[in-house]
Design a protein that fits this description.
The chain is mainly α. The chain has two domains: 50-229, Orthogonal Bundle (Hypothetical protein af1432); 237-427, Hypothetical protein af1432. The protein has 22 helices and three strands. The chain has helices at residues 30-43, 51-65, 70-82, 90-98, 106-116, 126-130, 146-169, 178-186, 195-204, 208-212, 216-229, 237-252, 261-275, 280-292, 302-305, 313-319, 322-330, 337-344, 366-381, 392-404, 410-417, 420-427, and strands spanning 14-18, 24-29, 234-235. The protein has a three-stranded antiparallel beta sheet. A hairpin with a 5-residue loop joins strand 1 (14-18) and strand 2. Helix 19 crosses helix 20 (392-404). The radius of gyration is 23 Å and the shape is elongated. The two termini are 31 Å apart.
Amino acid sequence: MFDGTSRIQPAGAAAVRTDSQGSDTVITDLRHVVFALSDALDLVGIDDLAHGKRVGIMAAECARAQGAEAREIARMFDLGLLHDVGVSSTVTHGHLVAEFDWESSQVHCEVGHALLHDFAPLAWMALPIRYHHTRWERMPRTLLPAQDALAANLVYLVDRVDALAAAHYADGSLLISTQGIRDQIAGHAGSYFAPELVELFLEVSRSEAFWLSLEPRAVQAYLAEMLAQGQTHATGMAELRQLAGIFSRIVDAKSPFTAQHSLGVAKLSRHLAERLGVGPGHCDKIEVAGLLHDIGKLRVPDEVLDKPARLDERERKVMNTHSFETYQILRPIPGFEEIAAWAAWHHEEPDGNGYPFHLPADRLPLEARILRVADIFQAMAQDRPYRAGLPAGAVADFMQGLARQGRIDPAILAAATADMDAAMAAACPRTT
């Protein structure tokens, strides 16, 4: 999947390197990170957690039937996994699944392109993602490499197949509905889809196995096989931080209330960690944890996340699932064991009354307690659509109240209040 001269390691490998200051930091397989974070994109479906995976399977099987080499098959699978990288809204996801064509579908394509085109290991995906909802008859084929145009259109085709099949997954009616789906795709040859791709799909989808591979158990087996077979790409902290930044932008774009929140939490967490004497390697990892701490919010419905009033009990329970979802997404990544725990524990309180694990203070490492303080501090300091951010004095007063209640670590708060100007600047960084 990945070009370049990066060191190749066995699939699933994670290593530790020593940086110039003698601190350990993570080197892991970027494919594991991408596969895990693709789970976050599927969370946007709320009740359907495999859309990207099914699109990847269908795209890969079409490439396989065309005689593509293993590397290209893996690339098409990965493209399917991440094709909706520009979607964070449950409302947008609902339109994309429920409607064959939607007038605003290009927005998430443009967002996805912007997210990936500067990230070298995945930059090859940017153009296919930009055009994966463009009809073949409107594809700017004179401006695009042929392989990108065809890859984009193949993803569009199988993405629409999955949308047409969505209603049939739960009730077991898929196999009796496949001919109708095939007929609809065939009817769009030359308009929505390249005729040769329609012909390819119709040939591949003749078998029951093609459709049965989209069932949950088969999807998981296929995912494991592709992860084991694909070419690995050893990646260090700089690339991990950049990729974490991409996914933090996806999370923060989900709601106008949370724009720039993850970046601010990451910057403030690192600032506090450095003041508290945490080593450089752990400062790197806490910054990544800060960028990814809210990734589980992708499963929270828009109407809950955007509600300007107090949440009712049901809505609060839904909201409180997000930190456990973060844990579920991050923990399978080799080398991310600490990052996953710190990120997932950012709502744990020293008195044991936090969530989702209700951990007591003696089980909360310093890094998790730092993230807890940074998360609340940033939320108070940041401008939100329904209120201006609090000034430094008011933030300090609010946080002191939480410390007296045993809800945050007072020593970490002291590190923040010792230089409130620097803490406020880290929590609300200027971006261009």
